[in-house]
Design brief:
Helix content: 40-55%
Structural class: alpha+beta
Strand content: 15-25%
Distance between the termini: 46 Å
Strand order of the largest sheet: 1-3-2
Radius of gyration: 22 Å
Length: about 160
């Protein structure tokens, strides 16, 4: 059986927990919310630090993890847009910040270094075979294969 709380019960529980009323604040980004939580107390700061460590664990740090991202890009970001061409992906990610990694694209010297390292160490093993099935358009339905390689720049 599902129990629904009335608005009055929620307000009463809220006051008993002595939590801040965060609905009064405007959070434009996840980062602004986490920055706000850090200012509350030590427990909140510790909670945000733990979240950041968990987030860091999800940032790919090996070729097998990057291969999964490559496959995801082919499968879920419009396979036909890639025209079944082979690709070199450069992924951008913050390790402990909850913000979009696209801001990192301005670090061209570091990104160039990552790409050069990838190409200097190119081997048969670093080229990933990406296989996927496309079924969104009956005329183009079928199994497809492409080759890709990638690197990740993270801070």
């Amino acid at each position: 059986m599902i129990h629904y709380l009335t608005n009055m019960q929620i307000q009463r529980n809220h006051k008993n927990l002595s939590l801040p009323n965060i609905s009064e604040f405007r959070f434009d980004t996840k980062a602004s919310l986490s920055n706000f939580l850090i200012t509350l107390d030590d427990d909140s700061a510790q909670f945000v630090a733990q979240l950041q460590q968990v987030h860091k664990a999800y940032v790919p740090n090996n070729q097998e993890s990057l291969k999964m991202l490559e496959w995801w890009n082919y499968k879920y970001q419009g396979e036909r847009l890639f025209c079944n061409n082979n690709r070199l992906f450069v992924f951008l990610a913050y390790e402990t910040k909850f913000i979009d990694g696209r801001d990192l694209k301005g670090n061209t010297a570091e990104i160039r270094r990552k790409i050069n390292h990838l190409l200097d160490n190119l081997s048969v093993d670093s080229i990933h075979k990406i296989q996927y099935h496309y079924d969104k358009d009956a005329k183009l339905e079928g199994n497809y294969c492409a080759f890709s390689l990638s690197t990740i720049y993270s801070e």
